[in-house]
Amino acid sequence: MAQRYRLDKGGRIDRDRPVDFTFNGRAYQGYAGDTLGSALLANGVHLVGRSFKYHRPRGIFSAGAEEANALVQVGEGAATLADLKATQVELYEGLSARSVNCYPSLDFDIGEVNSLASKLFPAGFYYKTFMWPQAGWPMYERFIRKAAGLGEAPLEPDPDFYDKRYAHADVLVAGAGPAGLAAALAAARSGARVILADEQHELGGSLLSGRDEVDGKPGSDWAAEAERELRANENVRILPRSVVFGYYDHNWIDILENLSDHLANKPADAPRQRMWKVRANQVVLATGAIERPLVFRDNDRPGIMLASAARSYVNRWAVRPGESAVLFTNNDGAYAAALDMKAAGIKIAAAVDLRAEAEGELTQAARDAGIEVLAGHGIAATEGHKRVRRVKVAPLSADGRSLAGEARTLNCDLVAMSGGWNPTVHLHSQSRGKLRFDAELATFVPDRAVQAERSAGACNGTFGLADVLGEGFAAGEAAAEAAGFSVEKAPRPQAGNGKFLPARWLWLTPSSKPVGHGGKHFVDFQNDVTAADLQLALREGYTSVEHVKRYTTTGMGTDQGKTSNVNALGVVSEFRGVPIEELGVTTFRPPYTPVTFGAWGGRDVGDLFDPIRRTPMHSWHARAGAEFENVGMWKRPWYYPKAGEGMHEAVQRESKAARESLGILDATTLGRIDIQGPDSAEFLNRVYTNGWKTLKPGAIRYGLMLGEDGMVMDDGVTACLGENHYLMHTTSGGAAEVLAHLEEYLQTEWPELQVYLTTVTEQYATAAIAGPNARKLLAELTDDIDVDPDAFPFMSWREGTVAGVWARVMRISFSGDLSFEINVEAHNGLHLWQTLMNAGEKYNITPYGTETMHVLRAEKGFIIVGQETDGTVTPVDLGMEKLCSTKKDFIGKRSLSRPDMQDPNRKQFVGLLPDDPNEVLEEGAQLVETVKSQPPMDMVGHVTSSYMSPNLGRGFALALVKGGLHKHGQKVYAPMPGKTIACTVTSPVFFDPEGERLRA
Amino acid sequence: MLLIPCPYCGERAENEFSYGGEAHKPRPEVPEEISDATWADYVFLQKNTKGTYYERWIHSHGCRRWFNLVRDTLTHEIHGAYRMGEAPPKVDEKTYV
Amino acid sequence: MPEATEPLTAASPLAAVWEPGEHGRIGPQGPGVTFTERRDLTLASFQARRAGVEALAGAASENLGLALPGPNDSTAGDGLSLIWVGLDRWLAVAADTNGPALLQRLGEALGETAAVADQSHGEYVLQLEGPQVRDVLMRATPVDVHPTAFPVGRVVSTVMNHTSVQLWRTQAERYLVVVHRGFARDLFKFLTTMSRDVGYRLP
């Protein structure tokens, strides 16, 4: 019968809107307003999963985020979601869910054999078993993964898209139960910008599950009124289905909002989830409390659930979670569940109460209602495989550590248990707020706040409803005031003020045998950690709470110990005879509940993962079929393959053309810094190793820039544009770092210097034409620049009109050949390039990319910072000592005279010629002088660059070799798999060593 | 993400800034005249205090100015920001073990 | 290789990705935001020389008729706006396309009080305008763009899509984003992706 366990009336469900769904392939029906959990219970389905390690049958055990058992896989294919808590999944038409961690089926699970062999799965099982041999790990891992797997990750790319938004609030309120609503009302009334977030779709929190009255009306009505007031205030943003999961420094808060997971028809072009990143001036935490289970023998059978959950199912969802219930409690508050269940027609077999004197307002009410109260009793055992069938109840000794009489059997299909309450202190703890053990509540409550936050209500250890509301209003007012708003105190609503006390704190309910010798006393349901496991960990010497937690995996599941942490501490405390407050508490870390990867990524995926910087000639390169390379954030042409060419062929062709006739390179990506001011030359003198005071307008000079540690950090040419006006070029990838470096010294060390830096990298587009025909081509395209070698010598620049537009032409060369770098305003870059390509056709002008650029400069022995250097290379190591002025100080100079820098055996820059001219060494290959039959060998250096040169007709390389400057002519060897490559150390300059072509 | 009070632009999110290490560590006037050890100390060693720390930041995506910050490196509490050359604010200094 | 069909035009760094029309989820109110390339603007940067900010402010006021804006602020005059970008540094934004003219004007007006640099080609200006523009910006920047925190005229140097930008509110529902030219295309892609939910129009 459909929804056999649905009550005839009541509940916050819409009976006019039935909802069809499937679970493990079977069709069921629930109502709008149900969770998957409440709908399953309405259909009498308790068995929903298998436990992690022992594959024991497990049922729905809670009604919220603390659920440890009812993990489900929702949806199919690419959109499937793993390990959702059935108690949080909102029901929608067509929802399809299945259990995780069961094979081949939930009803018949092979893994349950683990349960019989549980002696083989003690705490620290993995550490003990999968130790040797190490080579077996791939196999162990496969086994562990298969055995331990919970849900399944989809194999296809995520079809959904996600949103990420930043927001700012004067007051952020986490949780919209009575305290949160009160705080939001108080803060909003002051005019503050308020964000109120709650993980559920309905605001009201505990008011939706209980039967408390506020100001003489049902609590849920008061919540609805509060919501109406808040919604009418434009300064308030209400976020339902939004869990505040992360609390970081300076009140930076992460919220995950669900936008469409609960919808049957997911809207097109709308995000699935939204990550809110909120900066809040003040935070009010009103996150409530989570009920603790009790630790007793076989306390994990389906049908055993938290008392508050049973009460929620009855009141909020109009579901009978059983026909015949046993209440098992250590406190007075849980009797509310018994009373509400009884009122809903559920038979209460008995209330088993650990307290020797079972007293209190609600206990008395239960007695008055005819419920049998067994004071000083505990559940010593439970029976029933896929559903609890009966429990054995026995009186306890005075100290509660043993049974003290005959057990009595109670038939039941539901056990509602309550071990007290844990304030949800996760966010307070994440914010680095301290916790304090409250002996009366036997739990941790917030102590001192470190950030601008305050806790209110149950999460603060306050349980009477009137007190909760009062604290909420007070917190909202205080937060608004702290954010600079003036507050008028509102009268507090009237409400009852019953607390769940008195209680008796007995952490482990005894059974007929010691723990570990019959049955299992579960502490952590999700990780299958029992009291016996904790005891074993202690016996094996793990006494610190953090060690016990890691060794046993307590609190490490997707529920992050919401129900197990304090019980584990209590059990450890009893075993060790040390008070809980002396054991310490583990730290809570984000996220409070699991967050999908998609939400973290937001839209910063695919092409937006990392922005790309493009030159004005990019479209030309793309159309020419260039392969691109990332250099810094730039996309640069790497090589331009023609039909049928691979990289090797293309680079050989490009390299040859650039030497024999004419090549063209997009050099736009160089960093450019405009330097003005009367002290500019002095500044250049300090930041470069060489001297700058003699550089005249029209001239260009190469500079080497060091860090203060003496290591090469950048190089490039600087042009003197005019009196006290320079244009510095940096490497393409180093521009930002260099600018920061220069600004640092100007602003922090030498503020007296009158120097003004402006980054102008993108103002210009640059085409470098290189090769014997470069001058001829340039001459054709300009009327006002005299290109004669005497009029326009190497290392100078001229301004004029090229290809009809303003241009600054620099006669510099990174290829080693005659070369001009033509700079035009960026918008004219493509025009310049196209004009050069057309006019250069007769010279077979050949566009070349960064790879050919590397070959050409390497033939010439020019370094590339970041390739020949790696932060450990000095100018001396590079043989560039003559660039280091002895007449002035410069950044890094002092470091060059440190003893380590003077070591003649430092790795130094050399060329390498493999004996076999067809050999191309691998970049990064290690070099040795003495080859042994097997490693280890003494390494003397490594290859930094290596190419096949069509111009040299052989392979060649650049390398750093110990003492290499004095080893020219000697042999070194690169031992590679299968062969050893013999090479001769040479000068790094292979091409035109006299620089005749450069200066032609 | 820290909220950093740039002395020029006001409070901005940390992703606009870059870190610059220990503050109040001037470059030696005449590096040639100091010992290798003193120079190495200047170049390589920082106090890296666990507690109140005087450090440099640059508002790299903002005004591009370097400035100093007094920050508790354990709690990330920021006690103040001040311009280069200015005296640091009076702070009740803390160190942790 | 989709890029092989890129249009060969120098006119705009967005030429390859600008598809006129309405995109994303267009609600009954129409597109939430409209993008416009502001290639009608010319930019130059200037910073105060040692003579000091007061001398520069005097020169700006006397010769440009504009007050030098303070931190995070801008001033607007006839065809010329000044925006603060950092200590003693400003961007001049002229409502015409003549870069040399702006340089000359600034040079003459500010003389030795400022170091001026042409940015007319290096910087790109994208305009976002429409009823949902704030919604889009909330996805794009952690800067507080609430009207109380970001009034008309405010300009901040900040980071967007990992890139330095100036975000400038010139009208109630209009913001300009100034970005280095080479990043313009990916910033545009970023901002249109953030506009998918509210729908956007490319004229």
Description:
The complex is a heterotrimer of chains A (1000), B (97) and C (203). Chain A is an alpha+beta fold and 1000 residues long. Chain A folds into 5 domains: 103 residues, Ubiquitin-like (UB roll) (Roll), CATH 3.10.20; 187 residues, FAD/NAD(P)-binding domain; 203 residues, FAD/NAD(P)-binding domain; 260 residues, Gyrase A, domain 2; 84 residues, Elongation Factor Tu (Ef-tu), domain 3, CATH 2.40.30. Chain A has 25 helices and 49 strands. Chain B has 97 residues and is mainly beta. Chain B has a single domain, classed as Folate-binding fold (2-Layer Sandwich), CATH 3.30.2270. Chain B contains 1 helix and 6 strands; from the N terminus they run βββαβββ. The longest helix of chain B has 9 residues. The mean pLDDT of chain B is 95. Chain C has 203 residues and is of the alpha+beta class. Chain C folds into 2 domains: 92 residues, Probable tRNA modification gtpase trme, domain 1 (Gyrase A, domain 2, 2-Layer Sandwich); 77 residues, Alpha-Beta Plaits (2-Layer Sandwich), CATH 3.30.70. In chain C, 23% of the residues lie in helices and 33% in strands. Chain C contains 4 helices and 12 strands. In chain C, strands 1-12-2-8-11-10-9 form a 7-stranded mixed sheet, covered by helices on one side. Chain C has a 5-stranded antiparallel sheet with strand order 4-5-6-3-7, with helices on one face. In chain C, helix 1 packs across helix 2. Chains in contact: A-B, A-C, B-C. At the A-C interface, strand 8, helix 17 and helix 22 of A face strand 7 and helix 4 of C.
